[in-house]
Amino acid sequence: MKIFYFTTTGNSLAVARAIGGELFPIMEVLASGLEEWSDSEAIGVVCPVYFGKLPRPVWEFLSSAVLIAPYKFLVLTCGNTPAFAVCNDDVDWDYVASVRMVDNYFPMFDVARQIRDLPSKRVDENVSRVRGDIASRRVARESLTFYGRIAGWYMKMFPLSKKAYRNFYIDALKCTGCGVCERLCPVSNIVMSGGRPMIEAGCMTCGACYHNCPSAAIRYKGEKSMVQYRHDGILLADILRQRSG
């Protein structure tokens, strides 16, 4: 079984590992240029939901990839609702499900509170359910809920501003110029200049740089808390490996 994953704070990678199989980072796959993938058992995609839809690298992968397998699944990680992401039709999915985890979208949520309230989401139980469904090759697609529809339409009506990247700033007293953020950015949107990172237009506000900065030097105007989050089972090296192979 092959699983293609995309992650910025480790949630989706942790779920992909729990499901099992051979894991392929979507960023590495996109860089390889290979478009046809097959497996005699199953092929899956595990990724987060960004503003009610799939992250840009994921839909770029799905729009070009040819996935050949008798069973195909999509597992989404999110904070509250996967919204319209469960309606993805880029692939003829046999199984679509979501797992609610820490919502690390710092412009909107208090990450400290999200971490504190995590037990109420029963993550382990839900991941176990999804793993069992996939192991038994269950055919089912999660329905778009009323709340998900409302949230999805709200995000469509009030999309993330293309100028949101301007809200990032660097705490010069903390920044060590290590360049980790530049290596992490999934859309190559950070460049080092004079030993300091510059976040440019095209930012997805995915939080990879913000949450994984070793010195917590990357800040955001209006952030709901100053707490960084990375899944406790995932290392920074695991996330960096998405682009380095």
What brief labels describe this structure?
245 residues, alpha/beta, six-stranded parallel β-sheet, two-stranded parallel sheet, 9 helices, 12 strands
Describe the protein.
- There is one protein chain.
- This protein is α/β, with parallel strands linked by helices and 245 residues long.
- It contains nine helices and twelve strands.
- It has helices spanning 11-19, 26-32, 56-64, 111-116, 123-135, 146-157, 180-184, 208-212, 236-244; strands spanning 2-5, 22-25, 36-38, 43-48, 66-68, 72-78, 95-100, 140-141, 168-170, 190-193, 196-199, 218-220.
- The strands form four sheets. A six-stranded parallel β-sheet has the order 2-1-4-6-7-8. It has a two-stranded parallel ribbon with strand order 3-5. The chain has a two-stranded antiparallel ribbon with strand order 9-12.
- Helix 2 crosses helix 3.
- It is globular.
- The chain starts with a strand and ends with a helix.
What percentage of amino acids are in beta strands? 15-25%
Helix content: 25-40%
How many angstroms separate the termini? Answer: 19 Å
Strand order in the largest sheet? 2-1-4-6-7-8
Total of DSSP H or I helical runs spanning 4+ residues:
9
Q: What sort of overall outline do the alpha carbons produce when their principal axes are compared?
A: globular
